[in-house]
């Protein structure tokens, strides 16, 4: 697998390029993302799918600049795929030949089922563990669905309804919304019954934009759209209002200007399919066809799925920024033992040992940016980069524990911004204290053996190490409850 790989996706509305850099066998990170609104399908749906000259020119100019960028990044592998617009176009070979001859890029036109599969592979590997769901990717010319059962992709389907297609056939011609719904309904009736599912995973620009609108209206504490979840019934009225709004009123509903030409169409498709499935919850995926295409190449000998318990963001951060990995893993084990030993005192659910362990693995990655206030650097690293394989609640808890790994405990005021995603203050106090105590006991990075016991309101720590520095530092720690700590 190449060190740096460029994935180009030519859709009906946009062409996008993502450049990924590997950091270890399965870990990688995004180093460039470029988008061009080529609208290659513009005008085609009124002429039997034939691509029009202005659109062909925009597509070539965009790929020409993509080519310059990927060469600047020294990409050694380029995977270029095209979807609905080129799939439907009788004259697609005109663009394919010109791109191949003049830019030395080979474009592979993929069918709808492959497109749906790529999107589902990206979502499954990037999101928290998903057992049952159906992915929905609304594009310019088509909409793809993939059914997930027991954590595996079991079926895919592609529907000939997309935002650009609806825009040109209905919205541009001022046809009634009833005509739009009738057209969509006829097509979605072909969806097999086994695709019906209460949980949907939203992929693609329309559904990510919709999630951003909802997040803003909720005053959601994070800006990361990947992993954002919402209850559909609470926001169906908004979706319906967007579909029925005229262009001038879209702004008042929170729609960005660059989405005016496709948002109503995309929401109409989403609304109809969600109602057909009687869906109740939506999970937003920031990963889609480009990430799926990359993963199908990277994981081709592993059934297109990361190994069990592999977390992409965690491994990628550690590859690039962790310089005491063995010591951090030793800390993780000790933190778990401290948690268990003090369970009679704190009474917190053992499920929180996971986030506590992750905080131990990542607590000092910010030192690479600068030693002073490094816990704040680590906090921001985690808050903005621990996205894949973690829920928003997990990410913000890990980040907060790292931020308060010092000799102070977080206050209600400190929690205020992220309160809706965090556990109660008492739980946060205990987890923060346990991280601070663990870090203090492992201060010399020697990974020596430590035995723990708790009785009569006393935590006894037995070790062969002198722990001279730790004895003094422990006195400075603020404890969330009254108990003694003795080192033998």
From TrEMBL:
- One MF term in the entry's GO annotations: pyrophosphatase activity
Indicate whether Hydrolase appears among the record's keywords: yes
Q: Which UniProt keywords apply?
A: Hydrolase
Residue ranges of domain Ppx/GppA phosphatase C-terminal in the record = 313-446
**Is Protein biosynthesis tagged as a keyword?**
no
Against Gene3D superfamilies, the record matches this protein to: 3.30.420.40, Exopolyphosphatase. Domain 2, Hypothetical protein af1432
One short Pfam name that applies is Ppx-GppA_III
**Where in the numbering of this chain does the Ppx/GppA phosphatase N-terminal domain appear?**
19-299
Entry-linked InterPro entries: ATPase_NBD, GppA/Ppx_hydrolase, Ppx_GppA_C, Ppx_GppA_N, PyroPPase_GppA_Ppx
Q: What is this protein called?
A: Exopolyphosphatase
């Amino acid at each position: 697998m190449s060190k740096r790989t460029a994935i180009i996706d030519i859709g009906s509305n946009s062409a996008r390029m993502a450049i990924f850099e590997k950091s270890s066998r399965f870990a990688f990170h995004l180093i460039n993302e470029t988008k061009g609104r080529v609208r290659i399908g513009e005008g085609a749906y009124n002429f039997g799918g034939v691509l029009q000259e202005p659109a062909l020119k925009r597509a070539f100019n965009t790929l020409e600049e993509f080519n310059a960028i990927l060469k600047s990044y020294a990409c050694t592998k380029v995977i270029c795929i095209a979807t609905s617009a080129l799939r439907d176009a009788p004259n697609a070979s005109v663009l394919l030949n010109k791109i191949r001859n003049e830019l030395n890029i080979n474009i592979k036109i993929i069918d709808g089922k492959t497109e749906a599969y790529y999107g589902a592979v990206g979502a499954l590997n990037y999101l928290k563990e998903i057992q049952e769901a159906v992915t929905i990717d609304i594009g310019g010319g088509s909409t793809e669905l993939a059914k997930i059962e027991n954590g595996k992709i079991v079926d895919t389907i592609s529907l000939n309804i997309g935002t650009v297609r609806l825009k040109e056939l209905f919205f541009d011609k001022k046809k009634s919304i009833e005509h739009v719904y009738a057209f969509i309904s006829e097509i979605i009736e072909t969806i097999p019954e086994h695709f019906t599912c209460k949980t949907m995973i939203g992929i693609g620009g329309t559904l990510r934009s919709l999630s951003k609108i909802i997040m803003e209206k909720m005053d959601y504490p994070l800006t990361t759209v990947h992993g954002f979840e919402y209850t559909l019934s609470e926001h169906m009225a908004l979706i319906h209002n967007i579909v029925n709004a005229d262009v001038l009123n879209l702004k008042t509903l929170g729609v960005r200007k660059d989405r005016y030409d496709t948002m109503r169409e995309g929401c109409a498709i989403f609304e109809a399919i969600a109602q057909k499935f009687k869906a109740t919850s939506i999970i937003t995926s920031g990963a889609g066809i480009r990430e799926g295409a990359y993963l199908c190449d990277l994981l081709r000998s592993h059934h297109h799925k990361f190994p069990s318990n592999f977390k992409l963001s965690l491994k990628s951060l550690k590859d690039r920024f962790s310089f005491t990995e063995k010591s951090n893993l030793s800390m993780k084990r000790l933190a778990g033992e401290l948690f268990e030993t003090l369970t009679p005192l704190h009474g917190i659910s053992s499920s929180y040992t996971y986030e506590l362990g992750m905080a131990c693995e990542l607590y000092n990655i910010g030192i690479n940016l600068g030693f002073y206030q490094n816990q704040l650097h680590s906090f921001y690293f985690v808050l903005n980069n621990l996205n894949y394989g973690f829920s928003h609640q997990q990410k913000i808890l890990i980040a907060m524990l790292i931020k308060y790994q010092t000799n102070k405990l977080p206050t209600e005021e400190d929690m205020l911004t992220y309160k809706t995603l965090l556990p109660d203050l008492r739980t946060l106090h205990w987890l923060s204290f346990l991280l601070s105590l663990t870090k203090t006991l492992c201060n010399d990075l020697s990974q020596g053996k430590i035995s723990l016991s708790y009785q009569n309101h006393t935590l006894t720590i037995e070790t062969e190490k002198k722990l001279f520095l730790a004895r003094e530092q422990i006195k400075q720690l603020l404890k969330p409850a009254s108990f003694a700590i003795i080192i033998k």
